[in-house]
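for the writeup, i need someone to sanity check this before i put it in the appendix. the sequnce is what the collaborator sent (i think, or maybe the updated version? ugh). structure was predicted straight from it, no edits. if anything looks off just tell me and ill rerun, i have time this weekend
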Amino acid sequence: GKKEEDLGRSRGGLTTKIGACVDAVSQKILNVTLAPGQRNDCVIALAMLGDIEGVTVIGDRAFDTDKFRSEMARRGCTTIVPPKTNRRKPANLNREKYRWRHVIENVFSRLKDFVRVTLRKDKTNVSYLGFVHLAAAILNYRQNCRLCW
């Protein structure tokens, strides 16, 4: 069924969201998760971050929810997320640290170079997630070789 295969309806049709946890310094992919296309990004983030504690979490406006911020504060994490425009009391944004968000966008750009990831050529969730993990491992290996030189 569609629920088991992380396929969801969005404006573009049946889609799957890929959530990734990336180390901004080494630019390595730490964790990858899948979700249906209509699922909220904040739900994906909480599942993706797992039990990470005491780090700085950078995200886009989709992560600006009270639940996400309180969970990150409970774990001792610093949250760098721009406030949504409809917030009554917007949180302060550290723009210097938020500039590091481009690293995550760069990783997704490199991940989309794999056509099989971009077009979701695999029918089952297990095989698609397996190939996403393989692509992430290849990118991490390439990044590791670049750091050695």
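The mean pLDDT is 85. The beta strands are 8-10, 13-23, 28-36, 56-58, 78-80.
thx in advance!!
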